[in-house]
Amino acid sequence: MNVLLIYPEFPDTFWSLKHALRFIHKRAIMPPLGLLTVAAMLPRQWNKRLADLKNKSTGYWAFDQRVVGLDDFRSASAGERPTDYGANVAGLKAPDRYTFQITLTAP
Description:
Elements: E1 2-4, H1 21-24, H2 33-41, E2 47-49, H3 70-76, E3 92-96, E4 99-102
Parallel strand pairs: 1-2
Antiparallel strand pairs: 3-4
């Protein structure tokens, strides 16, 4: 089974607080960790895609340079070869069925 995890673009509204981000020098109020949580809950045998450059994901900016090893995985997916979705990403681990650990590059 193949699963493509996409973080949608939301319209600019007053409640999105996007206008306030420039004052706190951030690109988002908080990253879309819901997709990583969903990915961790899916069966391990399924192919999950999020950081694949071939998908042209517009939501990757929230993870860019924030998760250990994820940028290396993303750049490896840029070539003509098929992406290896079984490759380990150092900062993403599922030690057991109920735990998903994310190692950030900085606090």
